[in-house]
Design brief:
Elements lengths: L3 E7 L3 H12 L4 E4 L13 E2 L8 E2 H14 L3 E3 L4 E5 L5 E5 L2 E10 L3 E3 L11 E2 L2 H4 L7 E5 L3 H13 L3 E5 L9 H8 L4 E4 L2 E8 L3 E8 L5 E5 L2 E4 L3 E3 L29 E3 L11 H19 L5
Bound molecules: flavin-adenine dinucleotide.
Length: 305
Amino acid sequence: MNNHYDLIILGGGVAGMTAAIYAARANLSVLILDENACGGLVNWTQVVENMPSYKSIGGMELVERIQEQVESLGVDVEEAACIDAMDLTGEIKTVEADDEVYTAKAVIVATGRKPIPLDAAGECEQVHFCAICDGAAYIGKRVLVVGGGNSGFDEAVALLDQGIAELMLVEKMDRFFAAQSAQDQLAARSNATMRHSTEVVSVNYGDTLRSVTLRNLETGGEESREFDGIFVFMGQKPGTDDFKEHLAMDEHGYIVTDENMATNLPGVFAAGDVRPKKYRQITTAMADGTIAALEAERFIRGNSK
Ligand SMILES: Cc1cc2nc3c(=O)[nH]c(=O)nc-3n(C[C@H](O)[C@H](O)[C@H](O)COP(=O)(O)OP(=O)(O)OC[C@H]3O[C@@H](n4cnc5c(N)ncnc54)[C@H](O)[C@@H]3O)c2cc1C
């Protein structure tokens, strides 16, 4: 297997896949490494209604179409790839994943964002971050949703639509942050309860999830409630842990770039939600991927000025 490429793209969300399309069309040899399945957050989106050319399209269907285009251009894709080490400083960049060593003349980091975990829950099969991916396992069962922002409320409604028997949504702060329309939608469901000022103190397991201890932060009172599953929507953090020693980041851990997506290291670019930005959307991630790929091509061809 030839593991040398012109360009390695770390992260195969819409930013990474768009970059791959531009780079492959410029005749660069391209590898995408993704620690999960390509598509990233769009896989978690039930319906996308702001993607020009599709009035409405399922997130997974959109991903399939982009992936088909990527693969038709001869891009190599390694999914479920675990990055063990990297050296991005030299003229030739090295990335080690799953006992393979990959090299390239340029790298684009497009690792997006990850959900903030619920520390009290640890790692458990019954803790989830995506209603459409994992909700079906809880049809007819009881579910706790943690997080009172838009995602929490939208995903709670999506869970109930799938046939969850009983749902409780809790938020630690003293009010919910979701749009009032989203709150009204959930409040109208007879099998849903919503509590703010409520914290998850501990998650109690036997062989499987047994119960959750909740604390009312106004009264200090605690109670134990039985649930079959927990869905956590406490926001997102950048997926940049692997790059902390290598790339300049802002105080929140987002990779700093200039307007051409260039990082502090020559030949290393960043694109999509992993950058500091005001608007994180599919189209803005694609725009970043486009620019990063075109700049990587210029860099590789020795033409960056
Ligand atoms: C619930 C939800 C609904 C949304 N709905 C919409 C919508 O309707 N319309 C819209 O325009 N936007 C929507 N967005 C925003 C949009 O999905 C994102 O802005 C966009 O998908 C970001 O793309 P990305 O490629 O930058 O990152 P991501 O989609 O996060 O992709 C990053 C990829 O990198 C991989 N990765 C992470 N770390 C590593 C690593 N260390 N090594 C290798 N691979 C790694 C991940 O597995 C993932 O595949 C939504 C977001 C959410 C959370």
